[in-house]
Write a structure and sequence with these properties.
It is built from 14 helices and 17 strands. The strands form five sheets. Strands 1-2-3-8-9-10-11-17 form an eight-stranded parallel β-barrel. It has a three-stranded antiparallel sheet with strand order 12-14-13, covered by helices on one side. It has a domain at 142-207: Oligo-1,6-glucosidase, Domain 2 (Oligo-1,6-glucosidase, domain 2, Alpha-Beta Complex). Helix 9 (305-315) packs across helix 11. By secondary structure, it is of the alpha/beta class. The radius of gyration is 22 Å and the shape is globular. The protein starts with a helix and ends with a helix. Strand 5 (185-190) and strand 6 form a beta hairpin.
């Protein structure tokens, strides 16, 4: 028996669930061909998962141009900053989307295969990856309306005419869960007439159709290219929304979890040492499901930590934070939590659902509003708008408490950064928290 036969059997199980009406045998070969050249060790040299991280790991989250120096590529400036200022304490870096984009601060990707000219080159990315564990975003729930894929869709060119989700007039979309309050559908003129395309986030971000096997193969090729360029941590952005079925919530569907398991299988076989992390800004019990049976994500974001910690520091009571910590299960063997208190996004309020009362949430929101915070909303299936994120720098959020501003902003802020270092998991520090900006 060929040593790759077990792999083909495992891939066949994943693909049969995703594509029950397709001929799976040739698709298995296409999937293997797309992913096998990652530049990482193969199965014989697999690194035990327990060695993928240690208690010494600490990650910084930054954009490629957060640190600037005149007449120098931002990625080179970032690399030099890491080497001169952080190398004693930071050994991993998450560079937020560095690809050409059209909106949403990088999360509306025009070209997955390129580095933005104003940031640098793939060689600059590789240089950082040689010195630090590099996390990169896999932004595949959607792509930019300016992408070549979508432009080919508008021209009705195969296979791209199947690459984007189209809604039919009789589709039941009443249960769809979304993180935005904008209309779900966008009407676009194609060479074959008007089509209603799906936009979970914004109308410049068109949702991809993973029910199309050709798209899957293209995406796997892109992910493999990231690994070949030195990426060691794959962040599956907004992955919970990946698969859509009318009549359902279109979040956390079984096919979405199967897709994550497919990526995990491929990484385990073709890219020893890779860490797969899922980004699901949702209530705590939903977030935990992405560990699967230790066969999905290696790590998940500990999204509930930020709102509960901020609430504790602003309200003066730790009861909700302590109750959550006591109820949280240890991460499964060979898995980990990623602990953070700030990022490029705001402080998510959905992860506080069921953990803070409605009254406590509103008190937190009003306190941060007084500190200059703004708010993003989402439209719930019942049509109401609810606060999705609190948008404020963490330093500004620490100006005072529910009773008003005081002189303890710095001490409160330092506590917000120190506590996550003592919580089970891998700590991640946002660049603006590091610089208190």
């Amino acid at each position: 028996m060929s040593p790759t036969d077990p792999l083909r059997a495992q891939l066949g199980e994943h693909l049969s669930i995703l594509y029950p009406d397709d001929d799976i045998a040739p698709l298995i070969e296409r999937v293997i061909a797309a992913f096998q050249d990652t530049g990482y060790p193969k199965p014989a040299d697999l690194t035990p998962a327990a060695e993928l991280w240690t208690e010494r790991d600490c990650l910084v989250i930054t954009y490629g141009d957060s640190i600037l120096n005149k007449n120098e590529r931002p990625l080179r400036t970032l690399h030099r900053f890491l080497n001169t200022q952080l190398h004693h304490t930071i050994n991993a870096v998450h560079i937020l989307p560095f690809y050409p984009f059209s909106s949403d601060d990088g999360f509306s990707v025009i070209d997955y295969t390129s580095v933005r000219d104003d940031l640098g080159t793939w060689e600059d990315v590789q240089a950082i990856a040689a010195d630090y564990k590099l996390m990169a975003d896999v932004v595949i729930n959607h792509t930019s309306s300016e992408s070549e894929w979508f432009q080919a869709f508008l021209r009705n060119e195969p296979p791209y005419d199947q690459y984007f989700i189209q809604a039919k007039i009789d589709d039941d979309l009443s249960h769809v869960v979304r993180p935005r309050a904008t209309p779900l559908l966008r009407a676009v003129e194609t060479a074959d007439g008007v089509r209603q395309v799906w936009c979970t986030f914004g109308h410049d971000q068109i949702d991809l159709n993973f029910a199309c096997p050709d798209l899957l193969v293209d995406v796997l090729t892109i992910i493999a290219s990231y690994l070949k360029n030195g990426v060691q941590i794959l962040r599956l952005d907004a992955i919970g929304y990946l698969w859509k079925e009318p009549g359902t919530t279109c979040i956390h569907l079984p096919q979405t979890h199967e897709f994550v398991r497919l990526i995990r299988t491929l990484c385990d076989h073709f890219a020893s040492g890779i860490v797969l992390i899922t980004e699901t800004n949702v209530p705590n019990h939903e977030n935990l499901t992405y560990f699967g049976n230790r066969n999905e994500a290696h790590a998940i974001y500990n999204f509930s930590l930020a709102p509960l910690l901020v609430h504790s520091l602003l309200s003066g009571t730790s009861q909700y934070l302590k109750r959550w910590m006591m109820s949280m299960p240890p991460a499964p063997d060979d898995c980990a939590y990623l602990n953070f208190t700030a990022s490029h996004d705001g402080i998510g309020m959905r992860p506080a659902e069921g953990l803070l009362s409605d009254q406590e949430q509103m008190e937190l929101v009003e306190t941060i509003r007084r500190h200059g915070g703004r708010f993003s909303t989402r439209r719930a299936p019942d049509g109401t708008e609810r606060i999705y994120e609190v948008n404020v720098s963490l330093f500004e959020a620490m100006k005072g408490t529910v009773k008003g501003e005081d002189e303890h902003q710095v001490a409160r802020f330092i506590a917000s950064q120190t506590i996550p270092l003592g919580v089970e998991g891998i700590p991640a520090v946002y660049i603006h928290s590091l610089l208190a900006t």
